[in-house]
Design a protein that fits this description.
Number of domains: 2
Structural class: mainly alpha
Radius of gyration: 20 Å
Number of helices: 12
Strand content: under 5%
Oligomer: single chain
Strand order of the largest sheet: 1-2
Helix content: 55-70%
């Protein structure tokens, strides 16, 4: 929702996810939000009590390790099903989520907040501090962005903008990540990608562009007039070609590369936790 110029993403979580506090401390997508005083309203007092515990225990080694293991598990959960993927859309989404959790692992190990939009930018910065930018380049290769130029990414940003606007206009039925296709999300999606490009992170911006492009194209294929669909589908085909993902052999090759990459990133994350000055025993 749009509230006084702010983009708010609202959702519901069950009480069980916040009790006991140990469940929160082991979850990398909840714990960082309660490690600081971020509660705006808490009529029952439940969150305030948990926040006090989480703030005290957040940097303790056992919980940093637990959150790191969570990210490792989720990365593998999105990687392994790719060997039985039924479509290139599934492959794109699987690789995207794999990269999300793999980059999240490096962030969590470094006591940083995992993020979506700048996930690969943060990962690059953190791996650079470990003198392991080679792992970042290998992830970009797995995703298909490694050799993309700023001009190529710029073209896809333009086409993503067209697809996003059209999907917002025609959307009628529920779709994957469809809640992201709203007029007030446009600055987050489009301007957010452009900001990364302006900062010199065009390949990392492609990660964000691809996500919105794919979900917008899926909506167009479902809900747009029939005569519009071939043009957008052709653009999707060109995207897959530029990413080097046009045949089952292509994605099996990426799966093999990703499996090899996992070990290196997991080891670096473990080393970060073992030597991070902010982690306490």
């Amino acid at each position: 929702m749009d509230y006084e110029g702010l983009i708010l993403e609202c959702g519901f979580k069950g009480r069980a996810e916040y009790h006991p506090p140990e469940s929160v401390l082991a979850n990398p997508h909840i714990a960082p939000n309660l490690a600081v005083d971020s509660i705006l309203s808490d009529p029952t007092g439940l969150l305030t009590q948990i926040q006090q515990v989480v703030a005290k225990e957040f940097a303790r080694r056992r919980w940093v390790v637990a959150r790191s293991e969570y990210e490792k598990k989720r990365a593998l959960e999105h990687l392994e099903p790719l060997s039985q993927a039924n479509s290139l859309f599934e492959v794109l989404l699987g690789l995207w989520w794999f990269a999300s959790f793999l980059s999240g692992l490096v962030a969590v190990a470094s006591l940083k907040l995992p993020t979506h939009r700048k996930a690969l930018v943060l990962m690059k910065e953190l791996l650079h501090s470990q003198d392991r930018l080679d792992l970042h380049e290998r992830l970009l290769t797995v995703l298909g962005y490694a050799y993309m130029s700023p001009e190529e990414v710029g073209v896809y940003l333009q086409e993503c903008t067209i697809a996003f606007d059209r999907a917002v206009a025609v959307k009628r039925r529920p779709s994957y990540w469809g809640f992201k296709l709203r007029p007030h999300i446009r600055p987050y999606a489009i301007d957010g990608a452009r900001e990364m490009m302006d900062e010199g992170h065009h390949r990392e911006a492609m990660y964000w562009i691809e996500a919105f492009f794919a979900i917008a194209l899926a909506v167009i294929q479902n809900d747009a007039p029939q005569e519009e669909k071939p043009c957008f589908q052709a653009t999707f085909g060109r995207l897959l070609s530029d990413l080097g993902l046009t045949t089952p052999d292509d994605w099996r090759s990426r799966l093999r590369q990703a499996r090899k990459l996992v070990g290196g990133v997991f080891k670096v994350a473990d080393d970060i936790v073992a030597h991070h000055p902010g982690v306490i025993d």
